[in-house]
Design goal:
This protein is of the alpha+beta class. It has one domain (6-161): ph1033 like domains (ph1033 like fold, Roll). The protein contains four helices and eight strands. The chain has a six-stranded mixed sheet. Strand 3 and strand 4 (66-73) form a beta hairpin. The radius of gyration is 16 Å and the shape is globular.
Length: 162
Amino acid sequence: MAGKDKFAWLMKSEPSEVSVQYTYNRPKHTIGWFGVRNYQARNFMRDDCRIADPVLFYHSSCPEPGIVGLAEVASSAYPDPTQFDVKSQYYDPKSTKENPRWVQVDVKVNKIIDRVSLDDLRAIPACADMLVLRKGNRLSITPVTEKQYKAIVNFVKKKNEN
DNA sequence: GCCAACGTTGGC
DNA sequence: GCCAACGTTGGC
């Protein structure tokens, strides 16, 4: 998939678990994107994420869902350590160190932004067909086109001028 | 907490 | 390898 339209990524996180502020406060503003347990999302990280790809940091399953940070991919894919941790909710007994099933990439937050809500996104013509706006979409990592990414950055810029 | 949408599982 | 049942996601 992905192909030529892949320019950036939208990556979802539940703020109660990993918020954009929490990530920004970490060393190098960076966190390993652990806990992805969906094959399609995993494959994006494993096969298509490149260091320095732009990332839209998205808060999901919370009172105020939306894009809350501009970030970037800061590593290539490597095994997600939580799959081996029996105490973790992400533990996967079927995964082995020799043949890990799940991977993660590092994500570095560059800038915390005023939240871009789903209504905001829907109001940006270039973003109308973003995957995150599609009903029933549950993919935690989705590709974002250059057009969509730039429209969002523009929207954020304009908002800050006002 | 509802519920639509979708992914995964497992019996056959 | 089909497909029903089940579990999860996530906005509202």
